[in-house]
Amino acid sequence: MHDAVTALDIMTVDGPETFERLARISREKVLLYSLQRMDQYRHIQDFQAEFHRVRWLAKWIARQEFERVILISYPGAYVNSDNLFLQYKGLIEQHFVECGIHTVVLKVQGIHDTYARRHSFHDLFYDRRDHAYYVPQKKIMATYSVSVDNLAACILGAMHHKAIGQYDVFDEVGDLPSMLYRHSSGLKVFRLLPVYLYVRSFLGKYQSPTMLELFLRPLVPMYSHRTVRDLGVALEPMIGPVEQGMQSAVNTLPTGARGSGEVLRPAF
Predict the structure, then answer these.
(1) What is the pTM of this model?
(2) Reduced to 3 states, what is the DSSP secondary structure of residue 14?
(3) Cβ–Cβ < 8 Å for 143, 174
(4) 3-class DSSP assignment, residue 174
(5) C-alpha closest to that of 106 among 66, 43, 148
(6) What is the mean pLDDT of the chain?
């Protein structure tokens, strides 16, 4: 079937032979690689496990003479980064590029579905006990995100155009708490001191320190004009003052939570 797609969870691969079995039922020559379960990156073993499987996959697609790789990566990914997540994402980028197949890297920080009120940051910041989000208390936490529909359009553009290289993919820029509130079902967002969130992370009650640091680092500029020129997709980002449309009030934390923080109820 011409439009058939074979999906595989890379973390279920137990050896190179898995891809050989896949070759018997699949005829695709374009690989889309995306691992967006960011909450699963907790220990160095998790990063190493993914990278080992990527090396198996890269060797296999080279032997199978794949025509193109479309890789969903992260802004700031770099092989020599001092952040473990960014370092391994950089290694994965490098490995696919070096396998000799035309590679398109789509830099995506967050993904949102406005109608379903869902986003890819949910499991990173959600606290089940308090049914709320906890984010670091930082003056500016600008976040880039893209709707799932626009991301799909960029993927299709990468499949049908001859462009290679890296592309920033986003259609919304705003403050992280605002983004969390806007694309969830009205959950409260609490801003706490990073040191408190670090303690929670080391106790296993929050995201890993490596992932928390992503949102404490300096902002990585992103530009969307190349998607129009090379992929045929016009992304018109909604950009405004970071604090625009936000209302804040100082309240105590929900029952059972320790300390105090600022709860945000953005008005949109």
Answers:
(1) 0.84
(2) coil
(3) yes
(4) strand
(5) 148
(6) 82
